[in-house]
Amino acid sequence: FNNAVRRVLRTKMRLGLMGPRARTTRQRPSERKYAGRTEYFNNKKHRQVAREAVRKSVVLLKNHRKALPIKPQMRVLVAGPAANDKTKMMGGWTLDLFGQNIEQADFPQATTVFEALRREMKKRGGSATFSETGWVKDYSEYDLAVFVTGEEPYAEIKGDLADPEKSRSLDHGTRHVADFETLDMLQKSKLPTVTILLSGRPLYVNKYINKSHAFMAAWLPGSEGGNGIADLLLGDFDFSGTLSFPWPRHPCQTLSQPWALPDGQTHLFPLGYGLDYKHNKTIPQLPENWVFEC
Q1: Which alpha helices (DSSP H) does 94-165 contain, by range?
Q2: Full-model pTM
Q3: Residue 149, class by beta-carbon neighbours within 10 Å (0-12 exposed, 13-18 middle, 19+ buried)?
Q4: Using an 8 Å Cβ cutoff, are 78 and 117 in contact?
Q5: Nearest by Cα to 229 from 34, 76, 26
């Protein structure tokens, strides 16, 4: 570690960024060309690029019977705590190292999935209603449910599954029991359900996929996450994102573990997998009862 830091410091010294030459060869940050130019913060063009990045990175894993895109005049029930939580779109390495001391108010310009859907559905003659737990008095008043689940923010140690004192399982459901109960309730309501997963890594979510008509891996989309995801849900743009990692088929299947299982099968979805509106694929019922000691 010391050697790595030493190399960085040596490079900065040579560039005149620090040390005795810094004052004479380089401007102070406060003296640079764009210093104090607050108009570059929250710039419209920058936000458009961020929104485009969301659209191009989200991966569609399942779209049974063309549950997506959402039709303009549909009445949409939006459920799950992550559907209206900006912090779960950000993750760690944002305003706080581990992301555990950030609040919704820290991101005033960010847009959640629910906020974006409510705005866009209203424009198109439809509606979007939020219920964190997924419970409503009459499910017949809705045409579709959008359920959003997400990991708690983390970075490095806080999210490390290799820590022997923590569960090494990739099973998202064991860490978010209440979220899965919400999805289970939506399935029993007979509403077609679209699930969106906010996470910093591929996770074991077989039972979530089984209970969903469509499933999207949206990663940690940031402040433009809600807008970019809504663009895809409504069909304004097609999906183009593909997996940069294979998707785990069982709860212990990290990249450091062998991918092959006793039955000869490997990962659930391979590297580069990703659906779009032109190419659909039937996903069979996935196994949910793996017995492994991770």
Answers
A1: 113-123
A2: 0.88
A3: buried
A4: yes
A5: 76
